[in-house]
Amino acid sequence: MNASSRPRPTSSPWAKLRSSAIHGRGLYASKPIPKGTKIIEYLGERITKAESDRREEKRLERAKLGRSDGCVYIFELNKRHDLDGSASWNTARLINHSCDANCESNKLRGRIWIVALRDIAEGEELAFDYGFGVENWREHPCRCGTPKCVGFIVTKMQRWRVKKHLRAEARRAPRKK
User: Fold this and answer.
1) Short-list 83, 85, 90, 71, CA closest to 47
2) Residue 59 and residue 76: Cα distance in Å, rounded?
3) Mind listing the pLDDT tens digit for each residue in 40-93?
4) DSSP output for 87-151
5) Cβ neighbour number for residue 99 with a 10 Å cutoff
6) CA-to-CA distance for 142 and 161, rounded, in angstroms?
7) Which CATH number fits domain 10-131: 2.170.270.10, 3.90.79.10, 3.30.470.30, 3.90.1150.10?
8) Which of 49, 133, 151, 174 is the most buried (most CB within 10 A)?
């Protein structure tokens, strides 16, 4: 594929790309965004669940060898298909996780949109809860730094489990004199 046939990076009138205090690069509000606004579509290749599992195994192998940043870009679409948003032209993939998110991902008619959960001020970094399960919580450290952060990227409904586990570990740890 030559440079002229590559898709151009996706864009939105609501967001611009900048360096992120959370992780790498992120998207920021280019103007005030009202609650409920569809900010940007999360795009990528529609794949089967089997292909999704295969790609996740390869990602984990690369991560073990230190050849990956560990980022996960696959979204669940439905019972049969997922969306792999890892393509460099999918700008929405750069929206970071936050435990105190100002956006959410919404599935609408087979498409994924990033939508404002509340009014967002110009210049504010856009972030959503990635919704990772608790099974492999240690593999996904969180860098959001919000007061609600448990230190790991885990869906809001499961953070209590991580807190409970961390408290138990702290009780078992030897005390320093």
Assistant:
1) 83
2) 16
3) 999 999 999 999 999 988 888 887 887 766 678 899 999 999 999 999 999 999
4) STT-GGGGPEE-TT-SEEEEEETTEEEEEESS-B-TTPBPEE-----STTGGGSB-----TT--S
5) 22
6) 15
7) 2.170.270.10
8) 151
Gap between the Cα atoms of 136 and 81, Å rounded: 22
pTM of the model: 0.85
- pLDDT (tens digit per residue) in 128-171: 999 888 988 998 899 999 998 999 999 999 999 999 999 999 99
- Rounded to whole angstroms, the Cα distance separating 163 from 102 reads 22
Please count the residues of the chain.
177
